[in-house]
Every structure is written in C-alpha cells, then in structure tokens.
Write a structure and sequence with these properties.
Helix content: 55-70%
Radius of gyration: 21 Å
Shape: elongated
Largest sheet: 2 strands, antiparallel
Structural class: mainly alpha
Order of helices and strands: HEEHHHEHHEH
Distance between the termini: 29 Å
Oligomer: single chain
Number of helices: 7
Strand content: 5-15%
Strand order of the largest sheet: 1-2
Length: 181
Amino acid sequence: LTPDLRMMRSVVLFALVGAAAAFAPMGMPGLRPARQTVTMMGKEAKDGLFTPIVKAGKKVLGEGTVTKIRGDIIGQHSKVISAFVDTSDTPFGKIALKQIFKLADKDNNGVLDKAELQDALKRLGFTHLGDKQIEAIFERADADGNATIDLEEFMAEAPKTLRTNLIKLAKTNGNDLGFLS
C-alpha cells in the first residue's frame, strides 16, 4: 500500500472505531471519557466531542500511531490555511479582503481605528488575542503612522495576521473538541 492509502485506511479505521466507541456503554473503561484534562505538548488538552474517538483510536492503533496521524492532519490543515491565505494576491483574494475591510469599517469612513480592528478580530474568532497583541498588529499595519489603517495598509497586513491567527484558532478549536485528548 502507498503511504496515502495507508493514511486513508488508518483514518477510516480510526473514525469507525470512534463512532462505535461513542455508543459504548458506560461500563466499558477507556471508551467513555471522564470529564478531565490531560497534559499534551505542554498544554492542557480538553476532553470534548471527539475524545471517545481519540481514546478508542489510541486503544486500537496505539498512541504513537494516533499521534502521527494527528500530526499529519494538523500539518495538512496548516498547509490548507496557508494556501488559502496565499490567495490574498489573486483577484478573488483581493475581493475577500476588501469585503472583510468593509465589514470591519463600522462607521464607513474608509479607515479602521483600533476599536474597529479589535472588534473585527474578535468577530473572526481570534479571542485569544490580548490588547497588547492587537496593539502590535495595529502598529504594524499602520505604515504611515496616522493612527488609522486604510485599505492598502489592511491588504498588506491582513494575510500575515490571518495566517498566524487562523492556525492558532484551529489549534484552539481542535483542543476544545477533544482532538488533542
């Protein structure tokens, strides 16, 4: 079997076993998650919706295999995010960024102030960003130093900010859903 077919077979087996585990009786140890957190990669991995699938996969495939599959999937997902962000220079990407800018510009004055930027980032789901990080994004984007971000400045900064924070958001969501259990 080719590596791609082996990966696909592992993922399908992983999903099937996980689906069965989701319906396992409470008395089957290891297949029903206790509401707890475990430390993984130096952080607290939460139990979530997919925890039974992950735990069943570890029992069937082994922890090393599940860790490799998870790493491969995270790597592929990061590549998809990067490829998406790389479209920012295409006509479609420029239209998308202009629409994001237009939605962020609440007062329709053609520029973003710090409050509008902060609100836009939070609405995109980047709740992990603190005030200092948002301030740094704003300062980086405000190339002319006039305390606002115009469309051209936004178009230049947005791809970097999106790439970094979409990947962080994906990791947070994966953790919250129990993929890191």
